[in-house]
């Protein structure tokens, strides 16, 4: 019995088969025409390497390549000096030098010693072949002197050989090789994510969210000045904590102790003991609203960032401010910590990202590629890389020096939050309520989501302020402007057949920073 499929499924299957049939030939370069390639290479050799085409070379190199006249595809004139001689080495004199200290080197004062015939012969016998090769390359700077003084007519070999020989050995110079245009690799297939739960309870925008290390519950902070703890499995409210007198902008749960840390627009940074559900420590020092915080994974250190353009490092136990990281010229919107260097990363409204030396309390690197405020930074859980989000682009970077990897373009909105899991799914949440999901490695945008606002809310209350994966990375939680927390999960029924990657291996254009 033939299984019946919907027209939609059959069309997608047909598309996928067609794509797989032609993908091997897609973007293949046109085969090279030998004649035009020779002309192109000859022109390239003359323009780029004309000044060194006549440089002296060793006979032993010529013999390895099959004689001076073989293998010259470009028809250049050959120099036939020393054909009757068996000299294996170029014995050259010294470079010109002045006769004494403090004497200017001019044509009248220069001294140049030439080796005698017997000395030259004894030196030639003593030199090993590899040494002679290095020496020939090393004395090449004095080509004019060799030609004028050594009494040996210059020798050359075909340009394809002489130019491409480098000091370390006979590697071809990359400039002479035909380059294949880089193409985007095929992205890994990820199942689409679907909304499966909406949790209500806050009376204001939900500004921040964090999942506890045991994956039993999660915590949210809101513009209603409360911190709420929710059961992750059921979505039920477990506890409300009050104490902040303005919007709560950041929450994080410690993996090293039973503490919850929070910060807000009231300039306060609080440490809550979850055994007693009370504030046990305050960290005083910021001069304006505190926008974000993070805990160091291996030492008892808390880092906060603020609208006062600084980030502060606190000793969790003593409440002392260890360092004030100053250097940004506008509000610091986000901060992240890691165990490896650089241990602290900040993103700011001054459009820069800074990588900090935790011990010295100083900037290691400043990244100025973004053109607009950087409100979100996320570190990859496995790779030594990170991403930053700004209205102009999402950019990926390599640690430790912040080398640029690639742009992820297309999320044209104010990006408030980024999250990434071990599978390489990067999520960007924006101020207009849109959420884009990307393949980390290739930068392919495989899904776009814009969930409806909670009934009773205005359409303008569509916005994502924070998002996070739970510890199992099978759930994605978002904190939104319609006062809800939305929970997404992967669509178990989706397959690569029903949701094919509509990707073309197009030529990558070099992107400006």
TrEMBL record:
- Does the keyword section mention Transcription regulation? no
Does the record's keyword annotation contain Repeat? yes
Q: Which UniProt keywords apply?
A: Repeat, WD repeat
Extract the Gene3D superfamilies matched here.
YVTN repeat-like/Quinoprotein amine dehydrogenase (2.130.10.10)
A biological process from GO = mRNA splicing, via spliceosome
Under the heading InterPro entries, the entry gives: Prp46/PLRG1-like (IPR045241), WD40/YVTN_repeat-like_dom_sf (IPR015943), WD40_PAC1 (IPR020472), WD40_repeat_CS (IPR019775), WD40_repeat_dom_sf (IPR036322), WD40_rpt (IPR001680)
Q: Where are the WD repeats?
A: 199-240, 241-282, 283-324, 325-366, 408-448
Task: Name one cellular component (GO) term.
Answer: Prp19 complex
User: What does the record give as the function of this protein?
Assistant: Involved in pre-mRNA splicing as component of the spliceosome. Component of the PRP19-CDC5L complex that forms an integral part of the spliceosome and is required for activating pre-mRNA splicing. As a component of the minor spliceosome, involved in the splicing of U12-type introns in pre-mRNAs.
In the record, the note on similarity to other proteins reads: Belongs to the WD repeat PRL1/PRL2 family.
Q: How does it assemble?
A: Identified in the spliceosome C complex. Component of the PRP19-CDC5L splicing complex composed of a core complex comprising a homotetramer of PRPF19, CDC5L, PLRG1 and BCAS2, and at least three less stably associated proteins CTNNBL1, CWC15 and HSPA8. Interacts (via its WD40 repeat domain) directly with CDC5L (via its C-terminal); the interaction is required for mRNA splicing but not for spliceosome assembly. Component of the minor spliceosome, which splices U12-type introns. Within this complex, interacts with CRIPT. Also interacts directly in the complex with BCAS2 and PRPF19.
| Protein name, UniProt field | Pleiotropic regulator 1
* Organism whose genome encodes this protein: Nestor notabilis (Kea)
